[in-house]
Amino acid sequence: MASSNSLLLLLSSCSLFFVLAVSRKGFASEDEAHHYHTLQQSSFIPSSICNPSTIGPKKSGSLEVVHKHGPCSKMSQDMVQPLNVEQILTQDQSRVDSIRARLAVNTAKKDALGSKTTLPAKSGSTIGSGNYIVTVGLGTPKKDLSLIFDTGSDLTWTQCQPCARSCYSQQEPIFAPSSSTTYTNISCVSTDCSDLTSATGNTPGCSSSTCIYGIQYGDQSFSVGFFGKEKLTLTSKDVIDGFYFGCGQNNQGLFGGSAGLLGLGRDKLSIVSQTASKYGKVFSYCLPSRSSATGYLTFGSGVGGSNVKYTPLSNSQGSSFYALDLLGMSVGGTKLPISSTVFQTSGMIIDSGTVITRLPPTAYSALSKTFRSQMTKYPLTKALSILDTCYDLSNFTSVLIPKITMFWSGNANVEIASSGILYANGIQQVCLAFAPNGDDSDIGIFGNVQQKTTAVVYDVPGGKVGFAPGGCA
Ligand SMILES: *[C@@H]1O[C@H](CO)[C@@H](O)[C@H](O)[C@H]1NC(C)=O
Ligand SMILES: *[C@@H]1O[C@H](CO)[C@@H](O)[C@H](O)[C@H]1NC(C)=O
Predict the structure, then answer these.
(1) What is the mean pLDDT of residues 122-136?
(2) Rounded distance, CA 40 to CA 399, Å?
(3) Nearest-ligand number for the alpha carbon of 181
(4) b/e string for 403-421 if b means 16 or more Cβ within 10 A?
(5) pLDDT one-digit tens code per residue, 300-357
(6) Helix (H, G, I), strand (E, B) or coil at 142
(7) Could you tell me if the CB of 175 is within 6 A of ligand 1?
(8) Exposed e or buried b for every residue in 71-92, given b needs 16+ CB within 10 A?
């Protein structure tokens, strides 16, 4: 077995945010209707019934996206072990720390002019707090597997029989390559094996001429195993022959009942790159507003049409991440009184696996101050982990909250959906769902709460990422 301890990486969290219905009724003025959302108290209570979305593309190549902890997930609850909100936010910080460590390594690599760098192991990062999952079919005959989907990493892997070292418990039967007629091992001398170095951050190993991958998401979560090739079935019409993936023989971590991970990053081995000739490196997803709803992940163009506002992709943050340029924000129609250089100095990536959007502290403090000034009729309450602007809304049946708009470069001013502004730990602690970084130079991250119900379109050859409102419910 290969070098499982020389590995590293990112990744983790996410969670259940309860959300909200918007109505145009009951506003004191046109101005309020324009700049505020009305949320009903009932919208903060999670539903135990799955309500699949009826909007979104019904095209081929479209997979249903569900929240791992919600009633639409097939995971049984004992398998998933729901975390409380504070645990979710703690794990979210671990993911952010590991993303930052990876970017620091990328910079170090560039500085070393291409010489190989061993990645520092980073502690505490886990993947188990409940990300969004999709179900794909692997092998012949095909076996269904639920994978966490992740725009922040590249390699797709699943646990594989015979689990030579260790497999954690997962909901579906563990994939058995020996029972599939289409599985092949990848040779150590192939260029595909060498591509693992940039996709995983680790030099591949070799065992009886079979290529060995290893990927680590922190000191507790990793997968090591054979690098293989297999038939991947997304939908009955979307079948990819010879898809490269990790067939994990030693898997540990809090992947929470899922069978592994689907890597949607920008690097060579991601599903986006591997399906380039079929889907042209274009994909879209929509994350549902609440865990009792469903969203989608779809490959190829055709989502959103003229509703999509595009912002240029930048190459500034390594080979895996999708980096965007944020220039400013507004709250309730008031533009934050800070220079766009605050955002440009930090840079920003969009990530499906980070829960809470991270901002430079200068930007966060302006955001929080402006938000508070527009929420004075609601009583502030104690902080919730990394969230410091929290309200006790128990005495209110409906709540007016200011709209938040992100000003992306390319003139893409995109309003955050009403479900993407607050993060509730029950009605007594409802918090502004943004957090500051430690330093203005730390990378900003556009997280998954703020992406909810927005169709997010990734067009790699077009060098752009687009946002369209109302992509799913
Ligand atoms: C893949 O390679 C490993 C290590 O050489 C071997 O144990 C396994 O049987 C191979 N699997 C297949 C399907 O060839
Ligand atoms: C709710 O209203 C009651 C009665 O007016 C009051 O005593 C209590 O402090 C209020 N709670 C909050 C959180 O504002």
Answers:
(1) 56
(2) 6
(3) 1
(4) bbbbbbeeebebbbbbbbb
(5) 987 777 899 999 999 888 888 999 999 999 999 999 999 999 999 999 999 998 999 9
(6) coil
(7) no
(8) bbbebeeeebebbebebbbbbb
Helices (H), 249-323: 271-274, 276-279
Which of 41, 395, 399 is the pocket-test mutation for ligand 2 (most atoms within 8 Å of CB)? Answer: 395
Distance of CA 25 to the CA centre of its chain: 34
Distance 267 CA to ligand 2 centre (A): 53
Cα 104 from Cα 84, distance rounded (Å): 31
CA geometry: angle 100, 459, 356, nearest 5 deg: 35
Which residues contact residue 32 at a Cβ distance below 8 angstroms, ignoring those fewer than 6 apart?
A: 400
Quote the tokens at residue 162: 């015979």
Residue with tokens 């302006």: 366
Is any ligand 1 atom within 6 A of the Cβ of residue 177? Answer: yes
Helix (H, G, I), strand (E, B) or coil at 187: strand
Phi, psi torsion values for 317, nearest 5 degrees? -120, 50
| Mean pLDDT computed over 360-369 | 98
Strands (E), 187-277: 205-207, 210-216, 222-235, 238-252, 260-263
Asked if 447 and 393 count as a contact pair (C-beta separation under 8 A), the reply is: no
AA identity, residue 462: G
Taking only the tens place, the pLDDT of each residue in 12-62 is 222 222 222 333 455 667 777 789 999 988 877 777 777 776 666 655 568
Strand order in the sheet with 334-335: 334-335, 326-331, 404-408, 412-415
